[in-house]
Amino acid sequence: MKIVLLSGGSGKRLWPLSNDSRSKQFLKVLKNEEGQMESMVQRVWRQIGNVELSDSTYVATGKVQLDMIYSQLGTDAPIIVEPDRRDTFPAIALAATYLYSIVGVSLDEVITVLPVDPYVENEFFKKVKELEDVVLTSGADIGLIGVKPTYPSAKYGYIVPKEETCNETYYKVSHFTEKPHEDQAKLLIEQNALWNCGVFAFKLNYLIDMLILKGIPIQYEELVKQYDNLAKISFDYEVVEKASHVVVAPYDGYWKDLGTWNTLTEEVDSQLMGNGIISDDSVNTHVVNELDIPVTVIGLSNIVVVTSPDGILVSDKASSPRIKDIMRDVEQRPMYEERRWGWYKVLDYSKLADNQYVLTKRICIGAGKNSSYQLHHKRSETWTFIAGEGEIVLNEKHIPVKAGDVIQIPTRSRHSIRGITDLEFIEVQTGSELIEEDVIRLYMSWEEIMQFSS
């Protein structure tokens, strides 16, 4: 069996901590068994390792999240890169063609797809392992995992089994009901309906044959070229609900979708994360503060206050899920990002009178890590070092740097930086366009870069 973890999301549901590059699965708000902070994707990756599935697992993600994945899981994590975000059917189709045409996975092998951010115990992944046998023994087109409901939730979709096929291992699926009202959910639970947790399993040939019938390329490189032509549609609607034989394996264990601030704060270890104060009479109130300034809450209960370089949220917990709709049409550049080499925060962004722009960042390069050897056609940069030690290669010249040094990077200059210790500096970009497309990467590894330095 091969496992594909789907890592996507637009970053709106947990704004302002999440953004287009740092979606909810990357937020380090949970504690692991050693008391260290970890993200949802790090938790899931650790749990997959606990049940010895890491060697069979791939992460499907978009280009904008690639550095974040490498930063949190390491550069050895197997990645399948989406050219852009196009919902779950295109993402799963692309992953299937990658496994088929690049990895050489047998058409008879079972592929299991699951979200990268479920909040579950290790037992859930043992059920994922069992899903392979369910697909093979049942002969089903699609195998699902359904969570036994603990209350009549109106937030989740429901999988309704056929009455005559209920057994301990799996049920045949009758139909699906998407986010019913509470009274309808109660009736569904009486019919042994299960929460749909977004896990799909199928033999690889099932999806490859479907792509052939739809005229979709089954070679990964070709599908990447035509990816923009695929409809933005979910795998549920395009495949699962049209399949003739679907089964579901029931899971009677802890499962939770931490997709909103009211559900996420139920699982975090502390009411206060970051610099701040919560008064004793502020009951069931949480503050998550990424800024250096203090946040103080006095006499307010059942609220969540979240601050980051991207913005500030103050919300009643019950109303916090509305943030996705409220922020739907708001477009802004991410003000904080993690990269494979470290992180940066945007401190200021402004336009000058002569159509020139100025962008100021605080950047940290991790010890032993480096940026790519790159150049820019439309901007120059000034680096002022404030902490740590490192080294630069600038137009093939090797330069050691430390706190207090200032380096000028003229337009079209080839440059890279490496941290000997954690290295922090202020970068001021000035130019006509300050965009990612103006980053021309020449080499990635420090060993390659040093071959051309003097």
UniProtKB/TrEMBL annotation:
Q: Which UniProt keywords apply?
A: Nucleotidyltransferase, Transferase
Listed transmembrane segments: none
Residues forming coiled coils:
none
Reading the lineage from the top rank, the first entry is Bacteria
Single GO biological process annotation from the record:
polysaccharide metabolic process
- Which InterPro entries does this chain map to? Man6P_isomerase-2_C (IPR001538), Mannose-6P_isomerase_type2 (IPR051161), NTP_transferase_dom (IPR005835), Nucleotide-diphossugar_trans (IPR029044), RmlC-like_jellyroll (IPR014710), RmlC_Cupin_sf (IPR011051)
| Positions of the Nucleotidyl transferase domain | 3-267
Q: Where is the Mannose-6-phosphate isomerase type II C-terminal domain?
A: 339-442
- UniProt protein name: Mannose-1-phosphate guanylyltransferase
Q: Can you provide one Gene Ontology molecular function annotated for this UniProt record?
A: mannose-1-phosphate guanylyltransferase (GTP) activity
Record flagged with keyword tRNA-binding: no
Provide the species name: Paenibacillus pectinilyticus
